[in-house]
Every structure is written in C-alpha cells, then in structure tokens.
Amino acid sequence: MDLGIKGKQALLCASNAGLALACARAIAAEGADVVINGRNPEKTEEAARKLREVATGSVEFVIADISTDEGRSALLRACPSPDILLNNNAGPKPKLFLETDRRDWVETCNSNYITPILLVHAILPSMIERGFGRIVNITSAMVTTPRPHQTLSSGARAALTGSLKALSLEVARHNITINNMLPERFETDRQHQLAKAAADRHGITYEAARRAQVDSIAAKRMGNPEEFGATFAFICSVHAGFISGMNFHLDGGSYPALI
Fold first, then answer.
1. Three-class DSSP category at 250
2. What is the DSSP string of 180-199?
3. How does 52-86 read in b/e, with b if 16+ C-beta sit within 10 Å?
4. Fewest CB atoms less than 10 Å from the CB: which of 23, 51, 107, 231?
5. Alpha carbons 176 and 129: distance in angstroms, whole number
6. Residue 133: enclosing H or E segment and its boundaries?
C-alpha cells in the first residue's frame, strides 16, 4: 500500500531511540523527509546515520532539549512547517502520590503537557494553510488505566489528551488529524527502567520484575518497536484522514475496558 507520504516533511521529537525512532524509521522508508531530535549528540547522530540506510527521503537531526524554549526554537528552525508532527518526550520517574513534590509536578507538566501543546500551536497554522496535517502524540496506557505509581504520567498526559481532543474537532475540516498512541510494554530502554524501579519498589529481583512485565500482557510477550512504527506510519498516511481524536492502545490486547 502506498501511504502517500513521500516527500512529506516530518518532525519527530525525542526520537533518537525507542518507539519514536521506530516511527521515524517507518516513515523514512516510505519516503518522508524526517527531522529527528535528541539531547545526546553521539546517540542522535548515530540514529540519523542508521535511518539514512533505509530512507528514500532526507534525514536531518537536531540536538536540543525540547522541554526548553531554546530547544523548541531550534527544532522549529530546522522544520518550521511539518506535515507530520510526532510529540514525544521522556516520561517521569515512577512515584507514588505522596512521594511527589511540587518540582515533580511542574517538570512533568512542562515536559509532557506544555511542550507538546506549544509545538502544536507553532505548526498548526501552516497545516491549516496546506490542508493537510498529521499530529500524533506518544502518551501512555496510564492515560486510560492509571496506576498508583504513575500519578505524574497519568496527570500530564491525560491533560494533553483532553486539550488535543478538543482541538481535533476544530481542525478535522482542514484534513488535520490528531491521534494518540498509548504503548504498553514494548521492548525498549524505558521498560528496563520501569523494571528496575519495580524491583526496588517491591523488593524483588530485576528478573522477576521483567517476568511480571511480560505476564501483564495478554499476548504474553513484549511488543516489537517495529509494530509501533508501522502503526504510526499508517495513522500519518493519506488513508487515515477520517480517523482523528482517537487513543490507540498498542498493548498486546491487554486494555480491559470496552471504551
């Protein structure tokens, strides 16, 4: 299937590793011109090099912390009017509610709510003018199935989901879609971090925490980042213009509710 995104400009935040890099790889292979981003120069440059091995369009990279005004400005200078925007940023450290403090909430809201909102605000006018836009946010299963140790993540990302759901109703007539991808247990560094945190929290071994991660998934396996990237590519395609304001659970069939 031709996704119709060859030559489209794509800006992918925090995309030098993990699920966002898998998204960049998927659309680069379809001919999109991609700009990836990271804070670590060596890691980001290496990610760009590997992307160029599969890309049929251009691949550029920006070293920046998008949680800062300066970082967002650098990203937008490199790609001021993208057709595709992937919002992504590092998630907060797992903490129970009474373990959090004001700084935790301010930093999490800035990274996982304010930052993507400001990026959407910056690129939306050009999407409206062109009559095409695909905005996708990597959020978390914690948006719809909150857990006690993820109050920070649930709060900020649920706020983003609500704000952009409202916006999706306004911009759908311009062929601009806004959707959210909610990953659960993909084979990435983030899951290793969460396993280590769970081991400390429950007083168990790292290996036991990893087994618990797998057992929590209905499919009884961790997700492959390539599966995530392929889903992202379709959501960004010309064929997905009638899908907007949705939360896509990518969780091996584990989401327990009907809606």
1. strand
2. EEEE-SBSSHHHHHHHHHHH
3. eeebebebebbbbbbbeeebbebbbebbeebbbbb
4. 107
5. 11
6. strand 133-138
